[in-house]
């Protein structure tokens, strides 16, 4: 006991400093150095010059310009992707149009674009985005057009598996996915398969990309179903490409249950 007391009397200061250093290091780590930063700001504040009202306005204006530049760069990137998509597409493009209207109550059902009949947009034209199909034009004015989205539950589109050609139709689910319902009881399908519009579709040209198979429900009746992840980010669309198309009128040669797709 006497030895321990002598050691403490001799090394108390050193032990205290070591414990203080450890506690300080632990505190800095836990607070990410916030305390040190705030202490520095407090101590140096009297020596810092405060910006004048004019400088504050100028700084705010510069910040606004920087934010606008960032937004324009993001918009240009989206347009470049859309232009590249159009170059590789077999569809003829009439125009590219900005989305100017979208109701929160019908977010997954319809959009309004800022181009209409004066830009040669007509009912029946096809809308695509980066990744594939968006929907079709269902009404127009001279300067606007309304597009029914493929994510609308009332939108049914004839499709096929690109790999195996197994046919069916997809129905929107008011989200980034759609349900694919097959016509045959034993379709050749597997997760990852690409889905495109089929030649049986009355309202859409064939071979437009739609999405990929996510999961398969083989127990569905009367035929298997699959969940499809849509290629186009429907939730945050800003621009679309409009392609001229005239819906097919003569469909007598197609199977009856297939030509009932594309219901509005």
From TrEMBL:
Residues 99-242 form the Rod shape-determining protein MreC beta-barrel core domain. Keywords: Cell shape, Coiled coil. GO terms for biological process: regulation of cell shape. GO terms for cellular component: plasma membrane. Residues 62-89 form a coiled coil. Belongs to the MreC family. PANTHER family: CELL SHAPE-DETERMINING PROTEIN MREC. This is Cell shape-determining protein MreC.
